[in-house]
Task: structure prediction
Amino acid sequence: MLSSGFVPSLDKAVRKVVPVILDQMPAIRKFIDTQEFLSDTRKVFYKTMLDARAEYILKPAYECSVSGNYDADALDRLQNGIEYTEKDFESLCVELH
Result:
């Protein structure tokens, strides 16, 4: 949905919020590291998940939004009520690598 341009207000929010989040990632990672109640394993997990979400969700959505080059397949799924399948996810993962 974030990269589809389907909801104009969401698209506007992506352009506004994503750069702030990406800019603050070093501070977020540092905050996680300072949480003494978290094990080292959990800290690594949280930072890995945040990095992956930034890389595979936020950055592509932002790039689609600022370029106006939206994900046509995602838009089609949303407009026509087509479910997102595991095959869709796997093909996207191949494209990103």
Residues 40-67 form the longest helix (28 residues). The chain has a mean pLDDT of 84. Residues 1 and 43 are 29 Å apart (CA to CA).
